[in-house]
Design goal:
Blueprint lengths: L7 E7 L4 E4 L5 E14 L6 E13 H10 L5 E14 L5 E16 L1 H6 L7 E2 L11
Parallel strand pairs: 4-6
Antiparallel strand pairs: 1-3, 1-5, 2-3, 3-4, 5-6, 6-7
């Protein structure tokens, strides 16, 4: 294989509501934490152990607006995307680092709003570009 691949697939629960940030020119991003769990049995103690990993997710433009509208803390979602690391200078002058999942596709698996309002899930969303263009099947 000559090329490289940066692809992430996750199924997890939102740790918080989607936080939106709007930019001049009409673009926006939404950010939210996603929890994935690994459950296993400690063979020595026979104790059930749950290990949670937190992922910082970023969605853009129309995808962000859809997530903000339909998702809330605790909802279960499937996402695909790319790992992206970035750094910036904090107000205190210290360099900060973070690793995020830039979401390119998602499927809502369970949403509180969907259950309450009896609306269909937004399934099969695919962000076709870095713009606000999108395809919903």
């Amino acid at each position: 294989m000559n090329g490289t691949l940066n692809k992430v697939m996750l199924i997890g629960h939102l740790g918080d509501d989607v936080k939106m940030h709007y930019f001049d020119g009409g673009n926006c991003i939404g950010r939210f934490p996603l929890a994935t769990n690994e459950i296993y049995i400690n063979k020595t103690t026979n104790e059930k152990i749950t290990s949670t990993e937190w992922h910082n997710l970023v969605v853009r433009n129309k995808a962000a607006e859809i997530c903000e509208k339909y998702l809330s803390k605790g909802d279960k979602i499937y996402v695909e995307g790319r790992i992206k690391s970035r750094q910036w200078q904090g107000e205190d002058g210290v360099t900060k680092y973070t690793t995020e999942i830039q979401v390119t596709e998602f499927t809502f698996l369970t949403t509180k709003k969907d259950t309450e309002l009896n609306k269909p899930n937004m399934e099969g969303f695919q962000d076709q570009s870095k713009n606000s263009n999108f395809d919903h099947e």
